[in-house]
Amino acid sequence: MGKNAIMKNPNDQEIRKFLQEKFDPQSQLEKLKSYSNAANLPLFNSDYHEKYDVQILPDSKIAPAQFIPDALRPNVFRAHPVTIRAMRKELFMGGEDFVDLECLRICESCKHELDLQFWQFCPYCEASII
Fold first, then answer.
1. How many CB atoms lie within 10 A of CB 79?
2. What's the predicted TM-score (pTM) here?
3. DSSP labels for 25-44?
4. What phi-psi label fits residue 82: left (phi over 0), alpha (psi between -120 and 50 degrees) or beta?
């Protein structure tokens, strides 16, 4: 499949290839809006929005790439400062028939497996992953 090909009914492999070629959240959103399910209905409903307010507090005692929930405060998590900087601020969430946007890469520097949908750079060693 070429870079300019249009996917009407994409399969999982085609989507993963697209994500690996161009991992840009805005272009992913535009591509998802064009997909349809078996009933020829939109797979992704952009009119339906839910807002989740989550507070992430820096804590150098937490291991990299982990978010520890606060025992006393709901929707409050603690994470290492590098983890907070490394995480993507724009995350997509979908329903039950939503295609997973998982795009796994191995960090060339520290060899940890990372999912590009969550990280801007490696939260373990701060190396570039894209």
1. 23
2. 0.62
3. HHHHHHHHHT-B-TTSSBSS
4. alpha
Can you tell me whether residue 21 is helix, strand or coil? Answer: helix
Contact 109, 92 (CB under 8 A): no
Give 11's DSSP letter.
-
Give me the residue label for tokens 């020829």. 40
Other C-beta atoms lying within 10 Å of the C-beta of residue 123: 25
pLDDT tens-digit map of 49-105: 666 788 999 999 999 999 999 999 999 999 999 999 999 877 655 544 444 667 788
A 10 A CB-CB count for 86 gives: 21
Distance between the two ends of the chain, CA-based, in angstroms?
Answer: 21
Longest Cα separation, the chain = 51
Euclidean distance between CA atoms 115 and 113, whole angstroms: 7
Strands 76-79 and 113-115: unpaired
Measure the CA–CA gap between 45 and 103, rounded to whole angstroms: 22
Instruction: Find the DSSP H helices in 1-130.
Output: 12-21, 25-33, 81-86
Compute the distance between CA of residue 79 and CA of residue 66 in angstroms, rounded to an integer.
Answer: 6
